[in-house]
Every structure is written in structure tokens, then in C-alpha cells.
């Protein structure tokens, strides 16, 4: 496992250039496969292969609870986190369905669920039983934040050592849109009101309360925006820290990283503040329906592949976008060239 904040390898510019040159020999007008083309070039650079492969993918779902749930900021009770973890290991959640569809290795990691999780198959890496309520105290200590980052790093390491060539990283945690909005507000300096959404579906009155709780909590905790680990410890979530760690370890191992929705994008932003070279390894799967996601994407200058109005989390949008990565690889390796197909290359 790499050091959490060690510098990451540069992407391989030579392989990326070879892939770009090969793309223009394929039997299609140059550029006609649109965004699939720069995607293939990015994958070649990340993998260090001019004909990259991304299968099999690995799905990591990090689950944790949030003390801020006590403020009534979610449409669902905290107990749903543990119940959904049981559903993940039983194979019945959306991410299970989509992971099976793409032949992914799936791991469910308890990094901080409040209750004891039942069900064989959960990786027990609980750092603590849920965060503190950041309306009244820091969510966690810096040491706990580092431990949770380490949980994510080890999960990515296991997936890559098991042969996964792409990581799809998701989460489950009631109230984690509140933690994510708070983190995003501090990291970007944007007003909380622009970044708070309905999460699992709170009503209008709940949304007003959620905004007020997050605004007051940020004022009370007053973290230093130039200290990303301190911001994470003050306002964050254990699964958010673990996602950041998984991204850093995946990049260290030259694996493309599919970023899911709002929470995963905020984790990616935080990880980029800790290790800016990470940005080149990230592929943004989809634009979530959650209100703050646009600002999170803008902060990373990211343009996601899909917009399906998803707002589930779990890694579901990233699993759906994986088919496009596979298509980009197959385009490079399987399409005929103008020469092999005997087709005139230039305009008539
Ligand atoms: O990924 C997203 O864009 C997303 C948007 C809204 C909600 N979620 C999921 O819903 C839960 C958090 O919502 P909430 O209302 O409890 O803060 C958590 O388990 C997330 O996986 C996920
Ligand atoms: C049922 C349910 C499933 C979820 N999956 C991710 N977040 C979730 C939140 C709820 C409430």
C-alpha cells in the first residue's frame, strides 16, 4: 500500500499519444466517435497501454453512519444504513444488479456503520460506530480520518491484486449528503444554500432545516479550507474518507477510477486537494440529480459521461457508465483500420 499522500505517477503520455494516433487510422471519420475517443486516450494514458483493458472491474461500496442524522436532515432513519448493507451482501440492491451485469468483483466495506452489521460477506473495517454530530462536535479526529483513508487504500489494493483493471467506488450512509454539502461549501467557498439538496427525498420544510443546520455547523466548526484533512475530520464521513483513500491507491496502481454521484465527487475533490495528480485518473460517470453535484463537478472541471437523473449512490451510476469504458477499449483494439479494410482514407 502506498503512503496516503505520496505523489502519484504521471499518466503515460507516450501510450496516450499512440492511442490517439491509432484512433485516426480506424474506419470512421476522425473524431466521429465523439467523447469515446478522448476517453480511450485517457484510459491508455492511465493504464500505460496503447490498447488498454478495463475488465474485469471492481466495485467497492463503503458504508458508514453520520451523527448529523440526529438533526433530522434525511428522509430515512439511520438504521437504513445497516439494513442496506445487509441487502448488499444478500445481492438485492441496485449496485448488485449492475455489478453482476458488468461481471464486477464487489466488496462491501463497513468503515463506520453505527450498529453491528449482520450478514456474512461484509468486510469489517469499522473505524468507529458512526461519526460525531458535526452540529455539536467534530465528526472525527484527524487520526480516525487517516485510518478511514487507509481502509479505502487497502480495499483498492485488494481489488487490484485480485485482477481488477478499473475501480467503481460507491457509498451508503444515511445523512451523507449533509456531510458532503458541508465539505463542498468549505472546499469551494460557495454558499451552502447552492449546495444543499434533497438527498433521499426530504420535503420543502426539511430542506430549509437541512440548510440551516449545515450553515450553523460550519460556522461552529470553522475548519480551515486550506487544511483538507482537517476539513474532513471536522465535517466529513468515514465512507467519504475511505473513498478518497481508494481513489489515491487506485491511481498509484494505474487503474482508471469511475466516480459515481454527489458524495463520491465530493470525496474525489477532497482527494484532489490532498494529491492533485489524482485528477488525471478520474472519469466522471454521471451527473446526479442532487442539487450540489453541478458545483462539485465544476470545482473539478469535470464533464460526466451520463445524465440519467440518478440520485441513488452505491456506485450505481459508475457501474452503468462502465459499459462506455469497455466500448472505448474495444473500439481501439477491435475496429478495422482504413488499410486493413481497404477503405479510402481521404475525402473523394
Ligand atoms: O450519489 C448521489 O448523487 C446521491 C444523491 C442523493 C442520495 N444518495 C444516497 O442517499 C443517502 C444519503 O441521502 P441523505 O438524504 O440521507 O443525506 C446515501 O446513502 C447516498 O448513497 C446519493
Ligand atoms: C433505500 C435506500 C437505498 C440507498 N442506497 C444508497 N442510499 C440509499 C438510501 C436509501 C434510503
How would you describe the overall organization of this protein?
It is a single chain. This protein is an alpha/beta fold and 348 residues long. The protein folds into 2 domains: 13-52 and 332-341, Orthogonal Bundle (5,6-Dimethylbenzimidazole Phosphoribosyltransferase, Chain: A, domain 1); 57-324, Nicotinate-nucleotide-dimethylbenzimidazole phosphoribosyltransferase (CobT), large domain (Rossmann fold, 3-Layer(aba) Sandwich). Helices cover 47% and strands 9% of the residues. The chain is built from 14 helices and 6 strands. The chain has a 6-stranded parallel sheet, sandwiched between helices. The N and C termini lie far apart (55 Å). The mean pLDDT is 97. 5,6-dimethylbenzimidazole (DMD) binds next to α3. Belongs to the CobT family. One of its GO terms (biological process) is cobalamin biosynthetic process. One of its GO terms (molecular function) is nicotinate-nucleotide-dimethylbenzimidazole phosphoribosyltransferase activity. InterPro entries: Nict_dMeBzImd_PRibTrfase, Nict_dMeBzImd_PRibTrfase_bact, Nict_dMeBzImd_PRibTrfase_N, Nict_dMeBzImd_PRibTrfase_sf. This is Nicotinate-nucleotide--dimethylbenzimidazole phosphoribosyltransferase.
Amino acid at each position: 500500500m502506498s503512503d496516503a499522500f505520496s505523489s502519484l505517477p504521471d499518466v503515460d503520455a507516450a501510450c496516450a499519444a499512440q492511442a490517439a494516433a491509432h484512433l485516426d487510422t480506424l474506419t470512421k471519420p476522425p473524431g466521429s466517435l465523439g467523447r469515446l475517443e478522448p476517453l480511450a486516450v485517457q484510459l491508455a494514458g492511465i493504464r500505460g497501454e496503447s490498447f488498454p483493458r478495463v475488465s474485469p472491474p471492481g466495485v467497492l461500496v463503503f458504508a458508514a453512519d453520520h451523527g448529523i442524522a440526529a438533526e433530522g436532515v434525511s428522509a430515512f432513519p439511520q438504521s437504513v444504513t445497516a439494513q442496506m448493507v445487509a441487502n448488499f451482501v444478500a445481492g438485492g440492491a441496485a449496485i448488485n444488479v449492475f455489478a453482476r451485469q458488468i461481471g464486477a468483483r464487489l466488496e462491501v466495506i463497513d468503515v463506520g456503520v453505527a450498529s453491528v452489521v449482520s450478514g456474512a460477506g461484509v468486510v469489517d473495517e469499522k473505524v468507529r460506530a458512526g461519526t460525531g454530530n458535526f452540529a455539536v462536535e467534530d465528526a472525527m479526529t484527524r487520526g480516525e480520518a487517516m485510518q478511514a483513508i487507509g481502509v479505502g487504500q487497502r480495499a483498492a489494493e485488494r481489488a487490484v491484486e485480485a485482477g481488477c483493471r478499473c475501480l467503481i467506488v460507491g457509498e451508503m450512509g444515511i445523512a451523507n449528503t449533509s456531510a458532503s454539502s458541508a465539505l463542498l461549501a468549505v472546499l469551494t467557498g460557495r454558499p451552502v444554500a447552492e449546495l444543499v439538496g434533497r438527498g433521499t427525498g426530504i420535503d420543502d420544510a426539511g430542506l430549509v432545516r437541512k440548510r440551516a443546520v449545515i450553515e450553523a455547523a460550519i460556522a461552529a466548526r470553522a475548519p480551515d479550507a486550506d487544511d483538507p484533512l482537517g476539513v474532513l475530520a471536522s465535517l466529513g464521513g468515514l465512507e467519504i474518507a475511505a473513498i478518497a483513500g481508494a481513489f489515491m491507491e487506485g491511481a498509484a496502481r494505474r487503474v482508471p477510477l469511475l466516480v459515481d454521484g454527489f458524495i463520491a465527487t465530493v470525496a474525489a475533490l477532497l482527494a484532489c486537494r490532498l494529491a492533485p495528480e489524482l485528477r488525471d485518473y478520474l472519469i466522471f460517470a454521471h451527473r446526479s440529480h442532487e442539487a450540489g453535484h453541478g458545483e462539485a463537478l465544476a470545482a473539478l472541471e469535470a464533464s460526466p459521461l451520463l445524465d440519467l437523473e440518478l440520485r441513488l449512490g452505491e456506485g450505481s451510476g459508475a457501474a452503468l457508465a462502465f459499459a462506455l469504458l469497455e466500448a472505448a477499449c474495444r473500439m481501439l483494439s477491435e475496429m478495422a483500420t482504413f488499410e486493413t479494410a481497404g477503405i479510402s482514407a481521404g475525402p473523394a
